[in-house]
Amino acid sequence: MKGKGIRDPLYAFGLAVGIFLLLAVAKGFYPFGKNTVLQVDLFHQYAPFQAELRSRLLNGQSLIYSWEGGLGKAFFSQIAYYTASPFSFLAMLVPEERIADFMLFLIGFKMSLAAAFFTYYLESHLEKESREAILWGILYAYSGFMTAYYWNVMWLDDLALFPLITAGIDRLIRKGDGRLYLISLGLGIISNFYIAFLVCIGSLLYFAIQTAESFQWSDRKQWLKTGLHYGLLSILAGGLGGFLLIPAAISLSQTAASSADFSGFEIYQNFWQIGESHLLGAVPQVLVTNDKPPNIGCGLLALILASCFFLDSRVSKRRRIVYGSALFLLLACCVFRPLDFMIHGLHFPANIPHRFMFIYVFLVLTLGYDMWSRREELTEKMIFGAALFWGGILMVSEYLIVPANRDLIRLYSEKEVLCNLFLLAGYGSLLLFFCQNKRPKGSWHGKEHLHSRQRAFFLLLCLVTGECFYSGYNGFIRKTAYESYGKNMAAASEVREFLDEREKGDFYRMEFRRFQTINDSALFHYHGLSQFSSMAPGGISRLMERLGFSGGSNSYRYYDPTPLLDGIFNIRYVVEKTDDGNGGMKNPYYQYVDSRKNLEIYENPRALGMGFVVSPRLEGWQTENSCPFTVQNEFARLAAELDQDLFTLIPLEEIKAEHMEITDSDSGSYFEYKVDDPYSLENIPKLYAEISVREDGHYFLWVQAGQAKRLLYEWEGQRQDRELSVGKSLFDMRHIPREKKVKITIPMNNRSEHEVKFPETGEARIYVARYNDEAYEALYQALSREPWQIKAWGDTFMEGEVEADAGGLLWTSIPYERGWQVFVNGERVSPIPLGRDGVVGVSLKPGRSSVRLEYRLPGIGLGIGISLLSLAACLGLAARQSLSKRKRKYL
Fold it and tell me: Could you tell me whether strands 839-844 and 832-834 are parallel, antiparallel, or unpaired per DSSP bridges?
């Protein structure tokens, strides 16, 4: 590429920024309105983790381990998965209360980088600078994939770098220069190792395409040499990220997701709509199952031209077969379940399907630009044939296939169908104009022709820019109130400072009675319990779920816990928001302490600290029981040999179903059901149950119903409409007088916005229990006699003394992970996983013992060693190449 200029990539970057600013205005994102870009996981995970990284960097805290959430977590692994991007460290320049603004900046900046880098790639690939490449740059940045998944801000670095990686492959094949490929791939692996896995797949596919296109059989030796060079550089790029990859891989192996397996062959129903998902304005498929259509939408102009690539007989048969096979393979991975499983690394991604389709978008746009650069070779037949092809797919899908299949939703409104047809015709007409083969003779006619082409190109620029704007507008569909996200930051900081002073440096945990984000402890920087992270250890996640906490394989949430749970996990303080409409703190087991602004502080006087001695029998604690009240009773029985239950189950009565049939039931608490007519959305399937309260007391309700969003429980004078978090939740029903009838209603209407029916079948569990506070008081007195008295603690260690008269087990409320090392009286011992790998336990001999726990990041030494060796190898290769150039120069 002559001059190797960056002018056009800069123009593409500026145009992409302009589009993003217009989107911010249109969507009312602050400072242009009262909304914020934060949504879904960006709201609950990425922004809080960004705030936590910022805080720890500015305060000089450890980047290895953090107590801010999840009862404790491997923070370095969290960095590797969520915030390793070099741009994340810019958060230190932003005030904490502006974290939502920073996330908006990151999204816009990274999407604009994607436009710039793709523009650079196109000009480098064809070795020709062209202002027109800007159009394709913004089409890449605002493709349907980008605008549907923009909120996965940690992915955007790699999506932007992917064009640079492919440009590096081109340079490697053509010139034997692998520097750009090595640097860009290494940076991509470091920025986000998860999406970098898919980038590596795309890199390998692109290398295969280019070598198959470039080399003949007679060139097989050169092909082998290039392949070995590519493989070596790929290994070195991975090695550069070893300091992140090795610890992250070890952490991932401990998560619940590591046990995912393939469950059979299936052809997804998205087969019928995968064609029309290429067009403009398709409903973004986010938070859906894997059988929904992929997010593609990569520009109507590009679709017409890419189709012409396969219609043009002047394109070699080999090229058409190579590119066609690659595109078909990627589409097949969207449709066939086994391929879907394999391309995602032997894993089914939850709620965000087809994460690899940015590779497909990249290839389609590349082919489109290739044909644009040779547009004078196109014929009227090819252009209108391609436009009619896509128009036909749209019409057949929307008006024949969708009406004939009740399980499919329309991806486009009537206006969007007309808009697509209009744009297909418009782009076809403009292409015909640009495809004129000869420039008119004569200076006047030549100038007039030039002006006409400039006006046509300006019109084309307006159309493509408008299409990108609409793609973004269509994708940025979720938004939250700007003011609500940061309004508690100042008050939470005051609460933390007040409690730090009150506790005089002692370790304590606190939680919000109702969370704002699931990772409030990361956002507000306190030692908390809740966690939502893909790096959450599977052992603690399963234990918390079985004890009754809301959550799943990668999360657990503080949500109406029992006094036992608050006690054994050392929740010493609970903070209540007075302005959130939750009815205030009415738990009789907490004591009011103080308030700061809109936050009230309550103390749990029966928190059991970070550890306490339990009976050795707890090592055999089985937590698999489906009833959390039974699991909690079993803990009390084994830990302190308690001879009375904390909870007494209350049988359900008057069980009824509406618009569904109960097909199976076990002991009156477990139900399987079948919906009468799942397509009748006005007839919501409901499950009803009643209990008779025969004794005054404090009652708890636990429900598991994956098809329900909320539930209602009511009795005379009382009515509570509550959210069912992640399909299972524990509810504190508080005090209920005797002789009351409690009615429970569970609507089974939890369907995504893209579903046209209710799930046909499902199951539910309902347990109601009366709580015995006298039993817990007896348990508290027994367990608090031999506490682990913390003498010193830090980000990566906790040390204290414990008196165990008869020996036993030390229960610690610290999640069990491989990195914990335990020292008793200075001697290293093996930690004991309690609660089926839930928390760290320590075996104690009779008498007084000093117990120290230290967290040492597993694999960090090996990872750093691999990175240093790879860096040394890279420097050696660079020096060798530089020396070779010098020799050639003087020869």
Answer: antiparallel
Distances (CA, A) of 660 to 258, 619, 728, 750: 36, 43, 20, 15
Q: How many CA atoms lie within 13 A of 124 on its CB side?
A: 26
Residues in the chain: 891
Which residues does 817 contact at the CB level (< 8 Å), separation at least 6? 74, 251, 254, 537, 855
pLDDT in tens, 10-66: 999 999 999 999 999 999 999 899 999 998 899 999 999 999 999 999 999 999 999
The answer to whether 729 and 806 are in contact (CB under 8 A) is no
778 touches 642 (CB < 8 A):
yes
Sign of the dihedral through C-alpha 102, 107, 109, 113: positive
Q: Which two tokens stand for residue 380?
A: 């009227």
* Beta carbons within 8 Å of 617's beta carbon, 6+ residues apart: 638, 641
Beta strands 571-577 and 509-512 are: parallel
User: What CA–CA distance (Å, rounded) separates 257 from 242?
Assistant: 22
Whether the Cβ atoms of residue 229 and residue 877 lie closer than 8 Å to each other: no
How many helices (H) and strands (E) the chain has is answered by 28, 31
Q: What's the pLDDT at 256? A: 76
**pLDDT band with cut points at 50, 70 and 90 for residue 2:** very low
Q: Are 219 and 838 in contact (CB under 8 A)?
A: no
- Residue 129 · residue 3 · CB < 8 Å: yes
Q: What is the separation of C-alpha 563 from the centre of its chain, rounded to a whole number of angstroms?
A: 32
CA distance 858 to 863: 9
Cβ within 8 Å of residue 804, ≥6 positions away: 613, 786, 810, 844, 845, 846, 847, 848, 849
Using DSSP's 3-state secondary structure scheme, residue 679 falls into: coil
Three-class HEC string of 532-552? ECCCCEHHHHHHHHHHCCEEE
- Predicted model pTM: 0.93
**Distance, CA of 501 to CA of 493 (rounded, Å):** 12
